[in-house]
Amino acid sequence: MTETLSPPRLQPSRTSLSGVTMPAHCSVGVTVLIVHRDTLGRCLPEGTLVSLKDSAGKTIGATIDAEGVSRHEGAAPNKVAWQLVDAHGLHLVAVNDEPLDPCRAAAAPPEVDIAIDETTIQATYLPPPISLNLRDEMTSPEADLLTEEQLEQLRLAGNNATLFLHGYNVPLGQYGTFVSWEKRTDINAEPLLTTAHTASSATILQDIDKVDIQVPVTRGRIANNLYHTPTENGSDEYREAYCNGSGAYNWFVHMEHQLNRAAGMTEEDWRPYTRMVGIAWLGDTGSVDFFQAELNAMAAGRRLVALLEQLDEAGIAINIISHSLGARVVLTALNLLGEQARHQWIDNVYLWEPAVADNALVNDVSQDSHPLGMGVFPDAHKAVRKVVVLHSEEDGILGPPPEDARSFWQQVTEVTSPALRGARWVQDIFSADDMLDELIGSAGGAYGKKWWISPSGLSTPLIRYYSDKAPADTVSPPVPQPMPVGPDPYGEDRAARAWQEFREMAIEEARAAIASADPLPTYDLLAPLAHHAVVSEEQAAAYIDTLQWLVGMNWRAGKAPRAALGSVGFGEVSKENDLIREKLANKTFDFVNQTLWLFDHSGMKIPSDEVFEKSYQEGIVNRIKEASRFGRYE
Q1: DSSP 531
Q2: Does the predicted TM-score (pTM) go above 0.90?
Q3: What is the DSSP string of 323-337?
Q4: Domain with 120 in it
Q5: Is it the case that residue 316 has pLDDT exceeding 50?
Protein backbone atom coordinates (compact mmCIF):
# COMPACT_ATOMS: atom_id res chain seq x y z
CA MET A 1 0.00 0.00 0.00
CA THR A 2 1.31 3.44 -0.87
CA GLU A 3 2.05 5.60 2.13
CA THR A 4 0.11 8.86 2.38
CA LEU A 5 2.57 11.72 2.27
CA SER A 6 1.25 14.39 4.62
CA PRO A 7 3.50 17.41 5.08
CA PRO A 8 5.08 17.45 8.56
CA ARG A 9 3.62 19.91 11.07
CA LEU A 10 6.73 21.47 12.57
CA GLN A 11 6.38 23.66 15.65
CA PRO A 12 8.86 26.53 15.98
CA SER A 13 8.90 28.74 19.04
CA ARG A 14 5.87 31.04 19.51
CA THR A 15 7.97 33.47 21.55
CA SER A 16 8.60 36.88 19.96
CA LEU A 17 11.87 38.75 20.19
CA SER A 18 10.34 40.87 23.01
CA GLY A 19 9.90 37.77 25.13
CA VAL A 20 6.10 37.71 24.97
CA THR A 21 4.48 34.41 24.15
CA MET A 22 1.07 34.67 22.46
CA PRO A 23 -1.15 32.42 20.33
CA ALA A 24 -0.83 32.89 16.60
CA HIS A 25 -4.36 34.25 16.11
CA CYS A 26 -3.61 37.36 18.23
CA SER A 27 -1.71 39.05 15.40
CA VAL A 28 -2.75 40.10 11.94
CA GLY A 29 0.77 40.49 10.59
CA VAL A 30 3.79 38.38 11.41
CA THR A 31 7.38 38.94 10.37
CA VAL A 32 8.90 35.63 9.37
CA LEU A 33 12.69 35.34 9.38
CA ILE A 34 14.07 32.21 7.73
CA VAL A 35 17.73 31.43 8.33
CA HIS A 36 18.92 29.37 5.35
CA ARG A 37 22.08 27.27 5.78
CA ASP A 38 23.35 24.07 4.24
CA THR A 39 24.43 20.97 6.14
CA LEU A 40 28.03 22.24 6.04
CA GLY A 41 27.06 25.39 7.97
CA ARG A 42 27.32 27.75 5.00
CA CYS A 43 24.75 30.46 4.28
CA LEU A 44 22.80 29.91 1.09
CA PRO A 45 23.83 32.25 -1.73
CA GLU A 46 23.00 35.89 -1.19
CA GLY A 47 20.26 37.10 -3.53
CA THR A 48 18.44 33.73 -3.76
CA LEU A 49 14.71 34.38 -4.04
CA VAL A 50 12.46 32.74 -1.44
CA SER A 51 8.72 32.48 -2.08
CA LEU A 52 6.65 32.14 1.12
CA LYS A 53 2.91 31.46 1.31
CA ASP A 54 0.82 32.09 4.37
CA SER A 55 -2.44 30.51 5.49
CA ALA A 56 -4.44 33.14 3.61
CA GLY A 57 -2.83 32.10 0.34
CA LYS A 58 -0.76 35.28 0.05
CA THR A 59 2.70 34.98 -1.49
CA ILE A 60 5.45 37.00 0.17
CA GLY A 61 8.77 37.01 -1.64
CA ALA A 62 12.14 37.95 -0.17
CA THR A 63 15.78 37.47 -1.04
CA ILE A 64 18.43 35.89 1.13
CA ASP A 65 20.86 38.43 2.56
CA ALA A 66 24.58 38.12 3.29
CA GLU A 67 23.80 36.43 6.62
CA GLY A 68 21.65 33.78 4.98
CA VAL A 69 18.35 35.29 6.17
CA SER A 70 15.20 36.02 4.16
CA ARG A 71 12.74 38.44 5.82
CA HIS A 72 9.03 38.09 5.00
CA GLU A 73 6.82 40.88 6.36
CA GLY A 74 3.07 40.76 6.99
CA ALA A 75 2.32 37.03 6.96
CA ALA A 76 -1.10 35.97 8.21
CA PRO A 77 -0.94 34.10 11.53
CA ASN A 78 -1.17 30.32 11.63
CA LYS A 79 1.04 28.47 9.16
CA VAL A 80 3.46 29.24 6.37
CA ALA A 81 5.36 27.24 3.77
CA TRP A 82 8.14 28.32 1.43
CA GLN A 83 10.25 27.23 -1.48
CA LEU A 84 13.43 28.50 -3.07
CA VAL A 85 13.08 29.91 -6.58
CA ASP A 86 15.52 28.70 -9.24
CA ALA A 87 17.92 27.29 -6.63
CA HIS A 88 19.17 24.12 -8.25
CA GLY A 89 19.73 21.11 -6.04
CA LEU A 90 19.29 22.83 -2.66
CA HIS A 91 16.97 20.40 -0.91
CA LEU A 92 15.41 21.04 2.48
CA VAL A 93 16.46 18.35 4.99
CA ALA A 94 15.66 19.89 8.38
CA VAL A 95 13.61 22.67 9.97
CA ASN A 96 14.53 23.84 13.48
CA ASP A 97 16.85 20.83 13.78
CA GLU A 98 14.03 18.39 13.04
CA PRO A 99 14.96 16.22 10.02
CA LEU A 100 12.80 16.06 6.91
CA ASP A 101 12.63 13.78 3.90
CA PRO A 102 13.86 16.06 1.09
CA CYS A 103 11.64 14.38 -1.48
CA ARG A 104 8.46 15.07 0.42
CA ALA A 105 9.62 18.53 1.42
CA ALA A 106 10.31 19.39 -2.22
CA ALA A 107 6.98 18.06 -3.49
CA ALA A 108 4.99 19.47 -0.58
CA PRO A 109 6.86 22.20 1.32
CA PRO A 110 6.34 21.64 5.06
CA GLU A 111 3.87 23.87 6.88
CA VAL A 112 5.38 25.66 9.87
CA ASP A 113 3.47 27.41 12.65
CA ILE A 114 4.26 31.10 13.16
CA ALA A 115 3.51 33.36 16.13
CA ILE A 116 3.38 37.12 16.60
CA ASP A 117 5.03 39.35 16.20
CA GLU A 118 8.06 37.69 14.77
CA THR A 119 9.06 34.08 14.18
CA THR A 120 12.52 32.84 13.27
CA ILE A 121 12.81 29.53 11.41
CA GLN A 122 16.05 27.63 10.99
CA ALA A 123 16.10 25.88 7.60
CA THR A 124 18.82 23.38 6.66
CA TYR A 125 19.48 22.29 3.07
CA LEU A 126 21.72 19.88 1.24
CA PRO A 127 24.70 21.55 -0.43
CA PRO A 128 24.33 21.84 -4.21
CA PRO A 129 25.26 18.98 -6.56
CA ILE A 130 28.64 19.01 -8.28
CA SER A 131 29.14 17.90 -11.86
CA LEU A 132 31.40 18.55 -14.84
CA ASN A 133 30.47 18.30 -18.51
CA LEU A 134 33.34 16.91 -20.60
CA ARG A 135 31.05 16.40 -23.59
CA ASP A 136 31.21 19.85 -25.13
CA GLU A 137 34.24 21.37 -26.79
CA MET A 138 36.48 22.93 -24.16
CA THR A 139 36.17 26.71 -24.38
CA SER A 140 38.83 27.44 -21.74
CA PRO A 141 41.07 25.47 -19.36
CA GLU A 142 38.85 26.56 -16.45
CA ALA A 143 35.85 24.83 -18.02
CA ASP A 144 37.16 21.44 -16.86
CA LEU A 145 37.84 22.58 -13.30
CA LEU A 146 35.74 23.02 -10.18
CA THR A 147 35.01 26.45 -8.82
CA GLU A 148 36.52 27.65 -5.55
CA GLU A 149 33.09 27.29 -3.95
CA GLN A 150 32.91 23.66 -5.05
CA LEU A 151 36.40 22.94 -3.74
CA GLU A 152 35.45 24.50 -0.43
CA GLN A 153 32.34 22.33 -0.34
CA LEU A 154 34.48 19.20 -0.76
CA ARG A 155 36.91 20.37 1.93
CA LEU A 156 34.12 20.92 4.44
CA ALA A 157 32.46 17.61 3.54
CA GLY A 158 35.36 15.47 4.72
CA ASN A 159 38.10 16.85 2.43
CA ASN A 160 37.55 14.12 -0.16
CA ALA A 161 35.94 13.77 -3.57
CA THR A 162 34.27 10.71 -5.06
CA LEU A 163 34.01 10.95 -8.84
CA PHE A 164 31.51 8.93 -10.89
CA LEU A 165 31.73 8.40 -14.67
CA HIS A 166 28.83 6.85 -16.57
CA GLY A 167 29.16 4.37 -19.42
CA TYR A 168 28.43 3.95 -23.11
CA ASN A 169 25.36 5.27 -24.95
CA VAL A 170 24.30 7.65 -22.16
CA PRO A 171 23.11 11.09 -23.34
CA LEU A 172 23.58 14.19 -21.19
CA GLY A 173 19.88 14.34 -20.29
CA GLN A 174 18.44 16.80 -17.81
CA TYR A 175 17.50 17.21 -14.19
CA GLY A 176 14.04 16.42 -12.88
CA THR A 177 12.01 19.33 -11.50
CA PHE A 178 8.90 20.04 -9.50
CA VAL A 179 6.34 22.65 -10.36
CA SER A 180 6.30 26.16 -8.95
CA TRP A 181 3.63 27.67 -6.69
CA GLU A 182 1.55 28.66 -9.69
CA LYS A 183 0.96 25.00 -10.55
CA ARG A 184 0.12 23.94 -6.98
CA THR A 185 -2.96 24.20 -4.81
CA ASP A 186 -2.78 26.26 -1.62
CA ILE A 187 -0.74 24.96 1.29
CA ASN A 188 -3.73 23.61 3.21
CA ALA A 189 -4.77 21.32 0.38
CA GLU A 190 -3.10 18.29 -1.12
CA PRO A 191 -0.38 19.72 -3.40
CA LEU A 192 -0.07 18.74 -7.00
CA LEU A 193 3.02 17.94 -8.98
CA THR A 194 3.82 17.61 -12.62
CA THR A 195 6.35 16.18 -15.05
CA ALA A 196 7.43 17.42 -18.43
CA HIS A 197 8.91 14.05 -19.39
CA THR A 198 6.07 12.85 -21.58
CA ALA A 199 6.20 12.27 -25.31
CA SER A 200 3.88 15.22 -25.91
CA SER A 201 5.39 17.40 -23.16
CA ALA A 202 1.84 17.86 -21.83
CA THR A 203 1.38 18.79 -18.20
CA ILE A 204 0.21 15.95 -16.00
CA LEU A 205 -1.05 16.62 -12.49
CA GLN A 206 -1.16 13.92 -9.90
CA ASP A 207 -2.02 13.87 -6.19
CA ILE A 208 1.08 13.53 -4.05
CA ASP A 209 -0.37 10.75 -1.93
CA LYS A 210 -0.84 8.66 -5.07
CA VAL A 211 2.85 8.66 -5.90
CA ASP A 212 4.94 5.60 -5.10
CA ILE A 213 8.41 6.67 -4.00
CA GLN A 214 11.07 4.06 -4.69
CA VAL A 215 14.25 6.07 -5.05
CA PRO A 216 14.34 9.52 -3.44
CA VAL A 217 15.65 12.11 -5.83
CA THR A 218 18.21 14.46 -4.43
CA ARG A 219 19.06 16.54 -7.43
CA GLY A 220 17.17 18.91 -9.62
CA ARG A 221 15.97 22.46 -9.50
CA ILE A 222 13.53 22.96 -6.66
CA ALA A 223 12.89 19.30 -6.24
CA ASN A 224 14.03 15.82 -5.71
CA ASN A 225 12.67 12.81 -7.51
CA LEU A 226 9.05 12.62 -6.71
CA TYR A 227 7.30 12.48 -10.03
CA HIS A 228 6.07 9.66 -12.18
CA THR A 229 4.11 9.53 -15.38
CA PRO A 230 0.81 7.64 -15.18
CA THR A 231 0.83 4.57 -17.37
CA GLU A 232 -1.84 2.30 -18.66
CA ASN A 233 -0.30 -0.75 -17.10
CA GLY A 234 1.21 1.08 -14.12
CA SER A 235 4.49 -0.78 -14.47
CA ASP A 236 7.39 0.46 -12.38
CA GLU A 237 9.79 -0.34 -15.24
CA TYR A 238 8.02 2.06 -17.57
CA ARG A 239 7.63 4.77 -14.95
CA GLU A 240 11.30 4.56 -14.04
CA ALA A 241 12.16 6.14 -17.39
CA TYR A 242 10.45 9.31 -16.17
CA CYS A 243 11.94 9.46 -12.67
CA ASN A 244 14.97 11.31 -11.38
CA GLY A 245 15.74 13.22 -14.54
CA SER A 246 17.27 11.55 -17.57
CA GLY A 247 20.57 10.55 -19.17
CA ALA A 248 23.79 11.16 -17.26
CA TYR A 249 21.97 13.17 -14.60
CA ASN A 250 19.70 10.21 -13.93
CA TRP A 251 22.78 8.08 -13.31
CA PHE A 252 24.23 10.70 -10.96
CA VAL A 253 21.02 10.80 -8.91
CA HIS A 254 20.86 7.05 -8.41
CA MET A 255 24.55 6.41 -7.78
CA GLU A 256 24.88 9.28 -5.31
CA HIS A 257 21.84 8.19 -3.33
CA GLN A 258 22.90 4.53 -3.14
CA LEU A 259 26.45 5.44 -2.09
CA ASN A 260 25.07 7.55 0.77
CA ARG A 261 22.78 4.76 1.86
CA ALA A 262 25.70 2.33 1.78
CA ALA A 263 27.80 4.76 3.84
CA GLY A 264 25.20 4.85 6.61
CA MET A 265 22.66 7.55 5.81
CA THR A 266 19.12 6.67 6.87
CA GLU A 267 15.96 7.86 5.19
CA GLU A 268 14.96 9.46 8.52
CA ASP A 269 17.87 11.91 8.50
CA TRP A 270 19.51 13.11 5.30
CA ARG A 271 21.85 15.64 6.89
CA PRO A 272 24.98 13.45 6.47
CA TYR A 273 24.27 13.24 2.71
CA THR A 274 27.44 13.69 0.64
CA ARG A 275 27.60 14.98 -2.91
CA MET A 276 29.77 13.07 -5.35
CA VAL A 277 31.29 14.69 -8.45
CA GLY A 278 29.42 13.52 -11.56
CA ILE A 279 31.43 13.49 -14.78
CA ALA A 280 29.50 13.55 -18.08
CA TRP A 281 31.33 12.59 -21.27
CA LEU A 282 30.30 12.01 -24.90
CA GLY A 283 29.58 8.28 -25.01
CA ASP A 284 26.28 8.35 -26.90
CA THR A 285 27.66 7.83 -30.39
CA GLY A 286 24.94 5.38 -31.41
CA SER A 287 24.53 1.68 -30.82
CA VAL A 288 26.89 0.58 -33.58
CA ASP A 289 29.76 3.04 -33.19
CA PHE A 290 31.52 1.73 -30.13
CA PHE A 291 34.91 2.64 -31.62
CA GLN A 292 34.04 6.34 -31.79
CA ALA A 293 32.79 6.16 -28.21
CA GLU A 294 36.17 4.68 -27.24
CA LEU A 295 37.95 7.61 -28.92
CA ASN A 296 35.63 10.03 -27.11
CA ALA A 297 36.37 8.24 -23.84
CA MET A 298 40.11 8.72 -24.31
CA ALA A 299 39.63 12.39 -25.21
CA ALA A 300 37.57 12.81 -22.03
CA GLY A 301 40.30 11.01 -20.07
CA ARG A 302 42.86 13.57 -21.23
CA ARG A 303 40.57 16.35 -20.05
CA LEU A 304 39.92 14.60 -16.73
CA VAL A 305 43.60 14.94 -15.83
CA ALA A 306 43.13 18.67 -15.20
CA LEU A 307 40.48 17.96 -12.53
CA LEU A 308 42.67 15.32 -10.87
CA GLU A 309 45.56 17.80 -10.81
CA GLN A 310 43.33 20.44 -9.27
CA LEU A 311 42.06 18.13 -6.52
CA ASP A 312 45.57 16.90 -5.75
CA GLU A 313 46.93 20.44 -5.50
CA ALA A 314 44.03 21.32 -3.18
CA GLY A 315 44.94 18.40 -0.89
CA ILE A 316 41.57 16.69 -1.45
CA ALA A 317 41.57 12.88 -1.39
CA ILE A 318 40.27 11.29 -4.60
CA ASN A 319 38.19 8.16 -5.16
CA ILE A 320 36.80 7.25 -8.59
CA ILE A 321 33.91 4.98 -9.61
CA SER A 322 33.23 4.21 -13.27
CA HIS A 323 30.61 2.17 -15.06
CA SER A 324 31.11 0.28 -18.33
CA LEU A 325 33.04 2.30 -20.93
CA GLY A 326 33.61 4.99 -18.31
CA ALA A 327 36.51 2.73 -17.31
CA ARG A 328 38.35 3.78 -20.50
CA VAL A 329 38.00 7.43 -19.48
CA VAL A 330 39.46 6.65 -16.06
CA LEU A 331 42.26 4.38 -17.29
CA THR A 332 43.30 6.94 -19.90
CA ALA A 333 43.67 9.60 -17.21
CA LEU A 334 45.54 7.21 -14.90
CA ASN A 335 47.87 6.11 -17.68
CA LEU A 336 48.74 9.72 -18.45
CA LEU A 337 49.48 10.41 -14.78
CA GLY A 338 51.54 7.22 -14.55
CA GLU A 339 53.57 8.13 -17.64
CA GLN A 340 54.36 11.50 -16.12
CA ALA A 341 55.56 9.91 -12.85
CA ARG A 342 52.65 11.26 -10.80
CA HIS A 343 52.24 8.18 -8.69
CA GLN A 344 49.54 7.15 -6.21
CA TRP A 345 47.49 10.29 -6.65
CA ILE A 346 44.21 8.40 -6.41
CA ASP A 347 43.19 6.53 -3.26
CA ASN A 348 40.74 4.06 -4.82
CA VAL A 349 39.43 3.28 -8.31
CA TYR A 350 36.33 1.10 -8.71
CA LEU A 351 35.75 -0.23 -12.22
CA TRP A 352 32.14 -1.46 -12.27
CA GLU A 353 31.41 -3.75 -15.24
CA PRO A 354 34.37 -2.20 -17.11
CA ALA A 355 34.06 -2.40 -20.92
CA VAL A 356 37.81 -2.77 -21.48
CA ALA A 357 39.98 -5.80 -22.18
CA ASP A 358 40.60 -8.09 -19.23
CA ASN A 359 44.33 -7.37 -19.50
CA ALA A 360 43.89 -3.58 -19.69
CA LEU A 361 45.92 -3.09 -16.49
CA VAL A 362 48.97 -5.15 -17.45
CA ASN A 363 52.31 -3.35 -17.75
CA ASP A 364 53.43 -5.27 -20.84
CA VAL A 365 52.30 -3.74 -24.16
CA SER A 366 53.35 -6.92 -25.97
CA GLN A 367 50.28 -8.56 -24.43
CA ASP A 368 47.98 -6.04 -26.10
CA SER A 369 45.76 -7.95 -28.53
CA HIS A 370 44.40 -4.73 -30.01
CA PRO A 371 46.14 -4.25 -33.39
CA LEU A 372 46.42 -0.49 -32.86
CA GLY A 373 47.65 -0.65 -29.27
CA MET A 374 44.44 0.69 -27.69
CA GLY A 375 43.81 -2.20 -25.31
CA VAL A 376 46.48 -1.85 -22.61
CA PHE A 377 47.18 1.03 -20.20
CA PRO A 378 50.65 0.00 -19.00
CA ASP A 379 51.29 2.89 -16.57
CA ALA A 380 47.78 3.27 -15.12
CA HIS A 381 48.53 1.16 -12.06
CA LYS A 382 51.21 3.61 -10.92
CA ALA A 383 48.76 6.47 -10.33
CA VAL A 384 46.42 4.69 -7.91
CA ARG A 385 46.79 3.02 -4.53
CA LYS A 386 44.03 0.46 -5.00
CA VAL A 387 41.95 -0.83 -7.94
CA VAL A 388 38.80 -2.88 -7.45
CA VAL A 389 37.01 -4.52 -10.39
CA LEU A 390 33.34 -5.41 -9.96
CA HIS A 391 32.50 -7.96 -12.67
CA SER A 392 29.75 -10.42 -13.56
CA GLU A 393 29.79 -13.27 -16.04
CA GLU A 394 26.00 -12.80 -16.29
CA ASP A 395 26.46 -9.40 -17.95
CA GLY A 396 24.94 -9.93 -21.40
CA ILE A 397 26.29 -6.64 -22.75
CA LEU A 398 29.95 -7.49 -22.08
CA GLY A 399 29.73 -11.16 -23.02
CA PRO A 400 29.52 -13.92 -24.10
CA PRO A 401 33.14 -14.88 -24.93
CA PRO A 402 34.51 -13.36 -28.16
CA GLU A 403 34.40 -16.55 -30.22
CA ASP A 404 30.61 -16.52 -30.00
CA ALA A 405 30.46 -12.94 -31.28
CA ARG A 406 31.13 -14.04 -34.86
CA SER A 407 27.78 -15.75 -35.01
CA PHE A 408 26.19 -12.37 -34.36
CA TRP A 409 27.98 -10.72 -37.28
CA GLN A 410 26.83 -13.60 -39.45
CA GLN A 411 23.29 -12.73 -38.41
CA VAL A 412 23.91 -9.07 -39.23
CA THR A 413 25.26 -10.06 -42.66
CA GLU A 414 22.06 -11.93 -43.33
CA VAL A 415 19.67 -9.17 -42.28
CA THR A 416 21.68 -6.52 -44.12
CA SER A 417 21.96 -8.44 -47.38
CA PRO A 418 20.62 -6.56 -50.42
CA ALA A 419 17.66 -8.93 -50.63
CA LEU A 420 16.48 -8.08 -47.13
CA ARG A 421 17.84 -4.58 -46.58
CA GLY A 422 14.67 -2.95 -47.87
CA ALA A 423 12.33 -5.00 -45.73
CA ARG A 424 10.31 -2.91 -43.31
CA TRP A 425 11.07 -5.12 -40.30
CA VAL A 426 14.80 -4.78 -40.95
CA GLN A 427 14.46 -0.99 -41.16
CA ASP A 428 12.55 -0.96 -37.91
CA ILE A 429 15.24 -2.94 -36.11
CA PHE A 430 18.17 -0.93 -37.38
CA SER A 431 16.57 2.46 -36.84
CA ALA A 432 15.94 1.86 -33.15
CA ASP A 433 19.04 1.94 -30.96
CA ASP A 434 17.36 0.24 -28.02
CA MET A 435 16.13 -2.67 -30.15
CA LEU A 436 19.53 -3.00 -31.79
CA ASP A 437 21.20 -3.03 -28.39
CA GLU A 438 18.89 -5.87 -27.37
CA LEU A 439 19.85 -7.84 -30.48
CA ILE A 440 23.54 -7.16 -29.92
CA GLY A 441 23.27 -7.93 -26.22
CA SER A 442 21.71 -11.30 -26.95
CA ALA A 443 24.40 -12.26 -29.43
CA GLY A 444 27.74 -11.02 -28.24
CA GLY A 445 27.17 -7.82 -26.32
CA ALA A 446 27.92 -4.19 -27.03
CA TYR A 447 31.56 -4.83 -26.17
CA GLY A 448 31.94 -6.99 -29.28
CA LYS A 449 31.13 -4.00 -31.47
CA LYS A 450 34.57 -2.57 -30.69
CA TRP A 451 36.28 -5.04 -33.02
CA TRP A 452 36.43 -5.21 -36.78
CA ILE A 453 34.97 -8.69 -37.18
CA SER A 454 32.28 -7.01 -39.24
CA PRO A 455 30.38 -8.61 -42.11
CA SER A 456 31.75 -8.34 -45.62
CA GLY A 457 30.65 -5.17 -47.35
CA LEU A 458 30.02 -3.11 -44.19
CA SER A 459 32.39 -0.30 -43.29
CA THR A 460 34.60 -0.74 -40.26
CA PRO A 461 34.86 1.80 -37.43
CA LEU A 462 38.33 2.88 -38.57
CA ILE A 463 37.22 3.34 -42.18
CA ARG A 464 34.43 5.60 -40.95
CA TYR A 465 36.81 7.51 -38.69
CA TYR A 466 39.48 8.11 -41.34
CA SER A 467 37.23 8.50 -44.38
CA ASP A 468 37.48 12.30 -44.24
CA LYS A 469 41.02 12.47 -42.86
CA ALA A 470 43.19 10.19 -44.95
CA PRO A 471 44.24 10.63 -48.59
CA ALA A 472 42.36 8.59 -51.17
CA ASP A 473 43.42 4.98 -51.71
CA THR A 474 44.43 4.43 -48.07
CA VAL A 475 41.31 3.44 -46.16
CA SER A 476 40.28 0.66 -48.53
CA PRO A 477 42.41 -1.93 -50.38
CA PRO A 478 43.14 -1.44 -54.10
CA VAL A 479 40.33 -2.68 -56.31
CA PRO A 480 41.28 -4.04 -59.79
CA GLN A 481 39.76 -2.35 -62.80
CA PRO A 482 37.49 -4.55 -65.00
CA MET A 483 40.01 -4.08 -67.87
CA PRO A 484 43.47 -3.36 -66.39
CA VAL A 485 45.09 -0.62 -68.46
CA GLY A 486 47.86 1.95 -68.08
CA PRO A 487 51.15 1.94 -66.21
CA ASP A 488 49.46 1.29 -62.80
CA PRO A 489 46.49 -0.92 -63.71
CA TYR A 490 45.69 -2.04 -60.15
CA GLY A 491 46.38 1.30 -58.44
CA GLU A 492 49.17 -0.14 -56.33
CA ASP A 493 51.60 2.73 -56.96
CA ARG A 494 48.84 5.28 -56.36
CA ALA A 495 47.94 3.58 -53.05
CA ALA A 496 51.59 3.47 -51.99
CA ARG A 497 51.96 7.20 -52.61
CA ALA A 498 48.76 7.89 -50.65
CA TRP A 499 50.00 5.83 -47.73
CA GLN A 500 53.31 7.66 -47.72
CA GLU A 501 51.47 10.99 -47.70
CA PHE A 502 49.27 9.75 -44.85
CA ARG A 503 52.33 8.61 -42.90
CA GLU A 504 53.96 12.01 -43.32
CA MET A 505 50.77 13.74 -42.14
CA ALA A 506 50.72 11.65 -38.94
CA ILE A 507 54.43 12.25 -38.28
CA GLU A 508 53.91 15.99 -38.79
CA GLU A 509 51.02 15.95 -36.30
CA ALA A 510 53.30 14.25 -33.75
CA ARG A 511 56.12 16.69 -34.50
CA ALA A 512 53.85 19.72 -34.05
CA ALA A 513 52.52 18.38 -30.75
CA ILE A 514 56.05 17.89 -29.43
CA ALA A 515 57.04 21.39 -30.53
CA SER A 516 54.06 22.90 -28.73
CA ALA A 517 55.51 21.78 -25.36
CA ASP A 518 51.95 21.02 -24.23
CA PRO A 519 52.14 18.10 -21.76
CA LEU A 520 48.79 16.83 -23.07
CA PRO A 521 48.35 17.97 -26.68
CA THR A 522 45.19 17.25 -28.66
CA TYR A 523 45.44 14.70 -31.47
CA ASP A 524 43.30 14.06 -34.55
CA LEU A 525 44.91 11.45 -36.81
CA LEU A 526 46.62 9.99 -33.76
CA ALA A 527 43.55 10.11 -31.49
CA PRO A 528 43.55 6.30 -31.00
CA LEU A 529 46.86 6.78 -29.16
CA ALA A 530 45.45 9.44 -26.81
CA HIS A 531 46.10 7.30 -23.72
CA HIS A 532 49.77 8.29 -24.18
CA ALA A 533 50.69 11.78 -23.03
CA VAL A 534 52.85 12.73 -26.02
CA VAL A 535 53.09 10.56 -29.16
CA SER A 536 56.59 10.35 -30.62
CA GLU A 537 57.32 10.54 -34.34
CA GLU A 538 58.38 6.89 -34.21
CA GLN A 539 55.07 5.89 -32.60
CA ALA A 540 53.16 7.85 -35.25
CA ALA A 541 55.01 6.14 -38.10
CA ALA A 542 54.52 2.69 -36.57
CA TYR A 543 50.82 3.42 -36.08
CA ILE A 544 50.29 4.29 -39.77
CA ASP A 545 52.29 1.23 -40.79
CA THR A 546 49.90 -0.87 -38.68
CA LEU A 547 46.92 0.77 -40.33
CA GLN A 548 48.35 -0.03 -43.75
CA TRP A 549 48.83 -3.64 -42.71
CA LEU A 550 45.22 -3.81 -41.52
CA VAL A 551 43.96 -2.52 -44.85
CA GLY A 552 46.08 -5.11 -46.62
CA MET A 553 44.45 -7.72 -44.39
CA ASN A 554 41.03 -6.37 -45.40
CA TRP A 555 40.66 -5.07 -41.83
CA ARG A 556 40.91 -8.54 -40.33
CA ALA A 557 43.22 -8.20 -37.35
CA GLY A 558 44.14 -11.85 -37.04
CA LYS A 559 43.64 -11.82 -33.25
CA ALA A 560 40.31 -12.14 -31.51
CA PRO A 561 39.63 -9.41 -28.94
CA ARG A 562 40.24 -10.20 -25.30
CA ALA A 563 37.19 -10.84 -23.14
CA ALA A 564 35.92 -7.82 -21.22
CA LEU A 565 37.32 -7.20 -17.74
CA GLY A 566 33.77 -6.50 -16.56
CA SER A 567 32.71 -9.98 -17.63
CA VAL A 568 35.56 -12.31 -16.64
CA GLY A 569 37.55 -10.22 -14.16
CA PHE A 570 41.23 -11.00 -13.54
CA GLY A 571 40.80 -14.78 -13.87
CA GLU A 572 42.68 -15.43 -17.10
CA VAL A 573 45.09 -12.51 -17.12
CA SER A 574 46.38 -13.39 -13.64
CA LYS A 575 47.78 -16.58 -15.18
CA GLU A 576 49.72 -14.60 -17.78
CA ASN A 577 51.07 -11.49 -16.09
CA ASP A 578 53.36 -11.16 -13.08
CA LEU A 579 52.19 -7.65 -12.20
CA ILE A 580 48.56 -8.73 -11.96
CA ARG A 581 49.47 -11.70 -9.75
CA GLU A 582 51.60 -9.47 -7.51
CA LYS A 583 48.89 -6.80 -7.21
CA LEU A 584 46.22 -9.38 -6.42
CA ALA A 585 48.45 -10.99 -3.80
CA ASN A 586 49.03 -7.74 -1.91
CA LYS A 587 45.43 -6.56 -2.44
CA THR A 588 46.35 -3.40 -4.35
CA PHE A 589 44.26 -5.01 -7.08
CA ASP A 590 41.07 -6.66 -5.89
CA PHE A 591 37.75 -7.77 -7.31
CA VAL A 592 34.12 -8.43 -6.50
CA ASN A 593 32.66 -11.33 -8.46
CA GLN A 594 29.00 -10.34 -8.81
CA THR A 595 28.01 -13.27 -11.01
CA LEU A 596 25.61 -14.64 -8.39
CA TRP A 597 23.64 -11.42 -7.93
CA LEU A 598 24.19 -8.96 -10.82
CA PHE A 599 22.40 -10.08 -14.00
CA ASP A 600 22.02 -6.75 -15.81
CA HIS A 601 24.74 -4.45 -17.14
CA SER A 602 23.05 -1.47 -15.45
CA GLY A 603 21.57 -3.38 -12.54
CA MET A 604 23.33 -1.15 -10.01
CA LYS A 605 21.20 1.89 -10.89
CA ILE A 606 18.19 0.54 -8.99
CA PRO A 607 19.87 -2.25 -7.04
CA SER A 608 18.40 -5.37 -5.56
CA ASP A 609 19.00 -5.85 -1.84
CA GLU A 610 21.86 -8.20 -2.67
CA VAL A 611 23.52 -5.79 -5.11
CA PHE A 612 23.18 -3.01 -2.55
CA GLU A 613 24.67 -5.05 0.27
CA LYS A 614 27.41 -6.96 -1.55
CA SER A 615 28.40 -4.45 -4.24
CA TYR A 616 27.71 -1.01 -2.80
CA GLN A 617 28.34 -1.65 0.88
CA GLU A 618 30.91 -4.44 0.98
CA GLY A 619 32.44 -3.93 -2.46
CA ILE A 620 32.83 -0.15 -2.56
CA VAL A 621 32.00 1.99 0.46
CA ASN A 622 33.46 -0.24 3.17
CA ARG A 623 36.68 -0.46 1.18
CA ILE A 624 36.81 3.31 0.69
CA LYS A 625 36.58 3.75 4.45
CA GLU A 626 39.53 1.42 5.04
CA ALA A 627 42.13 3.84 3.70
CA SER A 628 40.21 6.92 2.57
CA ARG A 629 36.82 8.52 3.20
CA PHE A 630 33.44 9.04 1.60
CA GLY A 631 32.24 12.44 2.75
CA ARG A 632 32.11 12.81 6.53
CA TYR A 633 31.01 9.25 7.18
CA GLU A 634 33.16 7.32 9.64
Answers
A1: T
A2: no
A3: ETTHHHHHHHHHHHH
A4: 9-125
A5: yes
